Amino acid sequence: MFNRLRNKKPASSVNSDMLSKQRRYDSLVRALHADIFRYAYWLCGDKHIAEDITQETFLRAWRSLESLKDDKAAKAWLITIVRRENARRFERKQFDYSDIEQEQLEDHLSTSTEDNAEQYLIRRHISKLAIEYREPLILQVIGGFSGEEIAKILQLNRNTVMTRLFRARNQLKDLIKQPQVRGQSNG
């Protein structure tokens, strides 16, 4: 019994550790919440699901905050958690399939302003890219990550990432150059 008492931290030390963890976590959330939400939104395309993914990401971050050794790597660490959270959605979800082609569905959410139309088209073109090209491009454009950081997040060679980014940009340029005919699908 004496050994158990001797190994316990004093209450003031535990409180100090918790306060330190809380401060670190709060600063992490303040600094990166917008970026994490934006990336989650790009992954799922739904504001409410992105909010859920972001919340779950920060909950997991809180639980394993001590595993983050370098605060400079926090953004990449959180992006990895976001990717895993998004993947978990599909592990437990049963899809109802429809015979209707996605391009034939009417969009009731977009407004008619030129900026929103342009953003919608770019987002649509990006979504047509294969995941191997889309993901590094989104990490670079939305996340602001370098090729080296993207390589670590995706667990790829840096040269592979740079090649995929080059191809993604070229494919995106080609898609944007294609004439947009109303009611016609380009993919």
Automatic annotation (TrEMBL):
By its UniProt entry, which CDD domains does this protein fall under? Sigma70_r4 (cd06171)
Q: Which part of the chain is the RNA polymerase sigma-70 region domain? A: 28-94
What GO molecular-function term can you cite, just one?
DNA binding
Q: Which UniProt keywords apply?
A: DNA-binding, Sigma factor, Transcription, Transcription regulation
InterPro entries for this protein: RNA_pol_sigma-70-like, RNA_pol_sigma-70_dom, RNA_pol_sigma70_ECF_CS, RNA_pol_sigma70_r2, RNA_pol_sigma70_r4_t2, RNA_pol_sigma_r2, RNA_pol_sigma_r3/r4-like, WH-like_DNA-bd_sf
Domain RNA polymerase sigma factor 70 region 4 type intervals:
122-172
At the top level, the lineage of the source is Bacteria
**Annotated GO biological process:** DNA-templated transcription initiation
A Pfam family that this protein carries is Sigma70_r2
Which NCBIfam families does the annotation name?
PRK12517.1, sigma70-ECF
PANTHER family attached to this UniProt entry = RNA POLYMERASE ECF-TYPE SIGMA FACTO, RNA POLYMERASE SIGMA FACTOR
Q: Which family does it belong to?
A: Belongs to the sigma-70 factor family. ECF subfamily.
For this entry, the protein name equals RNA polymerase sigma factor
Native species: Shewanella benthica
